[in-house]
Design a protein that fits this description.
Chain A has about 475 residues and is mainly α. Chain A has a 3-stranded antiparallel beta sheet with strand order 1-2-3. Chain A has a two-stranded antiparallel sheet with strand order 4-5. Chain B has 2 domains: about 170 residues, Rossmann fold; about 70 residues, no CATH class. In chain B, the strands form 2 sheets. A 6-stranded mixed beta sheet of chain B has the order 6-7-8-3-9-10, sandwiched between helices. Chain B has a 4-stranded antiparallel beta sheet with strand order 2-1-4-5. In chain B, a hairpin with a 2-residue loop joins strand 9 and strand 10. Chain C is about 70% helix and about 0% strand. In chain C, strands 1-2 form a two-stranded antiparallel sheet. In chain C, helix 6 packs parallel to helix 10 and helix 6 runs antiparallel to helix 11. The longest helix of chain C is centred in the last third of the chain and has 49 residues. Chain C starts with a helix and ends in a 5-residue tail after the last helix. Classes of the chains: A mainly alpha (about 475), B alpha/beta (about 240), C mainly alpha (about 475). Chains A and C meet through helix 2, strand 3, helix 3, helix 4 and helix 5 of A and helix 2, helix 4, helix 5, helix 6 and helix 11 of C.
């Protein structure tokens, strides 16, 4: 009996003209999104390689260690083919230098706003918008449509338990919609092979989890459609309710959560914070300047009373000590500035975290938000990628600067300008030696990547939410149908 | 020998939530090999009675039994013994007649039928062969009605319930339908049908009951009605001139 | 007869539950988008003022104009940008002004707060493009074939009514019943802007009005399309499906595909390539100048106290020459890139205009001043300000900014404490948005295309209905 009902449901879907059109469109969009994602990924990889080569070239052309500056670009990841997330909204690279703090700048969209006008559609978008809409289209009249047709009465003139019927309805619809869609999914994955996208086993595991989450979201909307159908007598009413609900769940609630949180939790802008940082920097350098004033006055006093030769000898004797002394203080200033910057940024991040927590909690009223957050975490194109990268870049900056200092000391070529004023000799400028720099052991940047375990752990809450939504929708459909008037 | 009672309404009453008394202490029986026609105006209670036999609604009082099984107590068991043809047979529009028969036959617990069996039944009900593999979308009302009765035949249930089976059928189709019912009756089926068609009722039914405002106001056998003007009698009962 | 059809259509739609529900939802969303836009503007304004204050505060206490560095300018929030966001959240909002060199706006809203990039904003563009177009389909997908299915079409044409009158009445009635009531939440929304004291100038009101006009034209195009498809199909379930597919193509596929195709067809040099060229030229110019610095000799007889000044003059001259070379090189590269970008945009948006959704989106962004031209406008106005700022600073310091080096002199403690500089003298940056009239040409094109869609689809519906099988 159960198998009969399920098979009937399957056949009914597969034979309906609605199915052919919808399946064709879904399949086309899925393939298109993955194809476009692949092309964009390849283009990003080329751009990344070219940019790195340019950086290497610039470094090779530098002649003093002080003028060696690095730029670290965010490496493209194959998973952005499926979920672009905020990939194109955050900066693509950061400068690594002694004086400038780490900051990801020049996002893809800010460099080329043309791509921001319509934005990219990725696989996740197709699932969230197109497939969920189609799930609704197939299920809004699952129960009341049969009632209107008269087939529900006919079915229940037989010894069919209601529980079995609704369970079979759900499974039949689910199979009839999901199974055919595996074909375009498989074709999309085949494209990955055809275009030789370098995917590790971990990548594939993440893709698998992404597909699992997509199935969960799709399942929810199937159950939801059946639920609405079982709660209404007429299919035109359930259609309206289902469509309005779809608009709310897919398009409105996710946005509303973020906007509400933005209104409730105030976060200072980066501009404000940077100006605070500038102010601190200025004050700190002023302090150093005063200290240096006092120190140099002392040094001048040391040289007083000596003749020309004596002053020269004394100066030469103490030059190195003085230079080291000054360098230590300058370094300390830089350390203090960096520490202040770190504190300010941490405060800013904490504020943002509060805002984000609130925003996503509200948004998670819709399973679509839970899905979007889950898949972004899987693809590591979530909002935390900026923080993760900047943390790793800060660590790298320290080791890179240490490397530069060490090399400068070893070669005796810091690259700095040494300007000395003397009432007798006037102004003396030492621009330093020019030499080819040995860049063979420049530290390599390692992007901080979360392990698969860590990523799955971060995805579990959202996957759990999706699962709960599915259960709740099906339970509601089940209960509604047990009391449904089949006449 | 008296045949087994298949349909039995025992003091059946139904009051809806809005207070309307749709059935008021109605009692009748339908035995194997008998066609019982329930006549009555719209809202007389005919469909309510049918819905109670099908356990779509529960009685407020009394019992509806199928083969001695109370439908509201053991609905699934009772339904195993009933085949139903609704007033407007829609079936699954994307399926062919054969596919619809296959599904409903299996639903009725009959899994042994072959395609050839389905075709035979469709021929028996008068549906031409070309239509067997066509989707129901393009069927006329008569063709759908025939498909509906074919489903009932396939179930091979001892009791058949029909809700206004000839409404909307042309005289030819109605006649063919009548002949089919008679052949089923002769096979020993108990047939309970609600209808407006006084003519067909007189032609085919063994017993005629007239419902008016929830009450069974008249029940007579075909023999008893032999010389009478059923239409005139019906009008009189509807007007309340006869009790 | 025409009036009768229009009245019937009006009554039929307005008395339906479908209308009550969808109108309710649309109204709430429209009013919400105005409210959220207004609040966003207020928050943006607060942030802008705070950033400006902070920028000024860090310069407080400075005693030398030569110590003035890291002066920032900020893109002020615009009221209409809060209603139609366009790309305003994708471009950098603040830029460092150094008196020389290129201006590079940084810190876009989405870059700074990626949380908003996850789900993006609810603005008028979104409401019209996505929600209202869906609802146009919902109401009109069964305008013709639905009446056929219900049997009322046959009944209507059992009377002496010309088909042309009927279809015209259908279109007019549907539009009146659906579009006109939407003016109510639009007006309410506008009232919210006034109540929340959003500083809308005359130009802003004109922009808002034009966005609404574009929105209604867009809505009308989907209404006409739905009527067209309904008049071409027998069954309403089929017409709904076709329209949904058309909606997906129009809203999601065509615009993006157009941009991607243009991206492939027109090669624009990457930002990295250009930045690298500039960086390498700058490095090599610096290297040359370092050699010149080492060879610096003050003129004979220069006093110690004047030595510094001479050196500063020397450094300043070198800096100016270096700047001029960089400027020339950068301008050339930037111009080449900008030209290529313009070509790419023309191709992309030209192709995209096949879709009414893309046309509307482009129109609304242009009208609101948040189209792709915004980045260039901000940059140009910033560069003009930089010139004015450089002139001001030259007047105060006697030299061009950035060329000279700042020396901290060790002086006698007994010297009198210097007075802080008056930072309010620094010229204030004012972002002058182009008036809407400057974009009338482009706006007219987009509105024209939308009107054309309306006409095309309606003519399609008209012709199809003349031959429609009423049975």
């Amino acid at each position: 009996m159960f198998a009969t009902l399920v098979l009937k449901e399957l056949k009914n879907i597969l034979l309906s003209p609605k199915f052919t059109a919808i399946f064709a469109v879904s399949a086309l969009l899925m393939l298109l999104s993955v194809f476009v994602g692949i092309r964009e990924y390849q283009s990003a990889v080329r751009q990344y390689a070219a940019a790195n080569e340019l950086v290497q070239q610039e470094m090779r052309e530098a002649r003093q260690w002080m003028s060696v500056n690095n730029r670290i670009y965010r490496e493209p990841d194959p998973l952005q083919i499926f979920v672009s997330g905020v990939q194109n909204d955050i900066g693509r690279y950061s400068s690594i230098s002694t004086w400038q703090p780490v900051k990801l700048i020049h996002s893809a969209y800010s460099d080329d706003p043309i791509f921001a006008v319509f934005r990219f559609i990725d696989f996740a978008f197709i699932v969230q918008v197109v497939l969920t809409l189609f799930a609704i289209l197939f299920t809004y009249d699952a129960i009341n449509g049969e009632r209107e047709q008269g087939t529900l009465q006919l079915v229940f003139s037989n010894a069919v338990p209601r529980a079995q019927y609704v369970a079979a309805k759900f499974i039949g619809l689910w199979s009839g919609l999901i199974i055919p869609l595996t074909l375009p999914v498989l074709l999309s994955l085949l494209l990955i092979f055809v275009y030789r996208i370098p995917m590790s086993p971990e990548h594939w595991s993440r893709v698998g989890t992404l597909l699992g989450s997509s199935v969960l979201l799709f399942t929810f909307f199937i159950a939801f459609g059946i639920m609405v159908s079982a709660l209404t007598k007429r299919s035109n009413v359930s259609f309206l309710i289902a469509l309005v609900s779809w608009v709310g769940l897919v398009l409105i609630v996710p946005r509303a959560g973020v906007m509400l949180a933005g209104q409730m939790v105030k976060v200072p802008t980066v501009a404000e914070v940077e100006s605070q940082q500038d102010g601190y920097t200025k004050n700190r350098w002023d302090e150093l300047s005063k200290t240096m004033q006092v120190r140099w006055r002392g040094r001048e006093q040391l040289l007083q009373g000596l003749d020309e030769a004596g002053r020269k000898a004394k100066r030469e004797e103490l030059e190195w000590t003085w230079a080291e002394e000054d360098a230590i203080d300058r370094k300390q200033v830089q350390v203090d500035i960096n520490e202040n910057s770190r504190k300010l940024n941490e405060e800013l991040r904490n504020r943002k975290r509060v805002q984000e927590k609130l925003a996503f909690s509200i948004s998670r009223v819709s399973p679509v938000s839970a899905y979007q957050l889950a898949v972004m975490n899987l693809a590591e194109t979530d909002i935390n990628v900026k923080g993760r990268y900047e943390d790793a870049l800060n660590v790298y900056r320290t080791s890179f600067n240490k490397f530069k200092d060490k090399k400068a000391k070893e070669s005796g070529n810091s690259g700095g300008l040494r300007i000395s004023f003397d009432s007798n000799t006037g102004i003396k400028i030492d621009a330093g030696r020019e030499m080819a720099l040995d860049l063979t052991d420049v530290p390599k940047f390692e992007a901080a990547r979360a392990s698969f375990g860590e990523v799955v752990a971060s995805v579990i809450p959202d996957a759990g939410i999706l699962g709960l939504f599915c259960l709740a929708a099906f339970a509601a459909a089940f209960i509604a149908f047990l009391r449904y008037d089949v006449r | 020998m008296e045949q087994q009672v298949m349909f039995e309404a025992a003091n059946l009453s139904k009051r809806y939530e809005d207070g309307v008394l749709a059935l008021d202490d109605v009692s009748f029986t339908v035995r194997r090999g008998e066609i019982y026609a329930m006549l009555g105006a719209n809202g007389a209670g005919k469909t309510t009675a049918i819905n109670i036999f099908l356990n779509f609604i529960e009685p407020s009082g009394g019992e509806a039994r199928v083969d001695g099984i109370a439908t509201h107590r053991n609905p699934l068991e009772a339904k195993q013994r009933i085949a139903y043809v609704s007033e407007n047979v829609m079936l699954y529009q994307n399926f062919t007649a054969l596919q619809n028969l296959d599904f409903f036959a299996k639903l009725g617990g009959k899994t042994q039928y072959t395609k050839s069996d389905y075709r035979d039944v469709l021929m028996r009900v008068g549906l031409q062969e070309e239509a067997h593999t066509k989707r129901l979308k393009g069927f006329s009302k008569g063709m759908r009605q025939k498909s509906g009765i074919a489903i009932a035949i396939l179930k091979d249930a001892p009791a058949i319930l029909l809700d206004e089976p000839t409404s909307g059928l042309d005289p030819q189709a109605a006649y063919e339908f009548q002949r089919l019912l008679e052949s089923l009756r002769n096979e020993g089926k108990a047939i309970l049908m609600s209808t407006h068609d006084i003519f067909r009722a007189k032609e085919a039914a063994d017993t005629i009951g007239i419902m008016n405002r929830g009450k069974l106001v008249m029940q007579k056998s075909a023999k008893e009605l032999a010389g009478e003007d059923l239409e005139k009698l019906y009008m009189q009962y509807m007007a309340g001139h006869v009790n | 007869m025409f009036k009768l059809i229009v009245e019937k259509e009006l009554k039929d739609i307005i008395s339906s539950t479908k209308f009550a529900v969808t109108f309710g939802v649309c109204s709430i969303l429209i009013v919400l988008s105005f409210y959220v836009g207004a609040r966003n503007y207020q928050i943006g304004r607060e942030q802008y003022d705070a950033a400006k204050r902070e920028n000024a505060r860090k310069m407080e206490g400075l005693t030398e104009w030569t110590d003035v560095r890291e002066h920032r300018i900020f893109l002020p929030p615009q009221p209409t940008a809060s209603l139609v966001m366009g790309i305003s959240n994708d471009i950098g909002r603040n830029a460092e002004v150094r008196g020389r060199g290129e201006l590079n706006p940084e810190d876009s809203r989405y870059g700074e707060d990626p949380i908003y990039a996850v789900f993006r904003f609810l603005d008028l563009d979104f409401i019209f493009q996505i929600i209202l177009s869906l609802f146009a389909i919902l109401f009109a997908y069964d305008a013709i074939n639905g009446e056929k299915e219900r049997g009322t079409l046959r009944l209507t044409f059992a009377n002496a009514i010309p088909r042309s009158t009927y279809i015209l009445g259908k279109m007019s009635g549907s539009f009146l019943a659906l579009a006109v009531p939407l003016l109510i939440p639009m007006l309410l929304g506008s009232l919210i802007l006034v109540m929340l004291q959003i500083p809308m100038q005359g130009d802003d009101w004109i922009r808002l009005f034009l966005v609404i006009v574009a929105g209604f034209l867009y809505f009308g195009s989907f209404l006409a399309l739905s009527l067209f498809v309904s008049a071409r199909t027998e069954r309403s379930s089929n017409s709904f499906l076709i329209l949904l597919v058309a909606w997906i193509l129009s809203v999601m596929v065509v615009p993006r595909t157009a941009v991607l195709l243009a991206g492939r067809a027109v090669d624009v040099p990457s930002v990295d390539e250009i930045a690298s060229k500039k960086s390498r030229l700058s490095a090599s110019l610096w290297q040359e100048d370092r050699k010149k610095m080492a060879d610096f000799k003050a003129p004979e007889g220069t006093q110690m106290k004047d030595l510094m000044q001479e050196f500063q003059k020397f450094m300043s001259k070198m800096g100016d020459e270096r700047e001029a070379k960089m400027q020339e090189f950068s301008s050339r590269l930037n111009e080449e890139r900008a030209n290529k970008q313009r070509v790419q945009e023309r191709v992309a948006f030209g192709l995209a205009r096949v879709s009414p959704s893309a046309t509307f989106s482009l129109a609304s962004a242009t009208i609101a001043g948040t189209g792709t031209q915004l980045k260039q406008e901000y940059k140009s106005s910033g560069e003009q300000y930089q010139k004015a700022f450089a002139e001001f600073m030259k007047g105060k310091t006697g030299m061009n900014m950035g060329g000279a080096m700042v020396f901290r002199m060790i002086t006698d403690d007994n010297q009198a404490k210097k007075k802080p500089i008056n930072i309010s003298e620094i010229p204030e940056y004012q972002f002058q948005r182009q008036p809407v009239s400057a974009s009338f040409g482009l706006i007219a094109v987009d509105l024209g295309v939308l009107a054309l869609f309306n006409i095309l689809f309606f003519v399609g519906a008209f012709v199809s209905f003349l031959r429609y099988d009423l049975r």
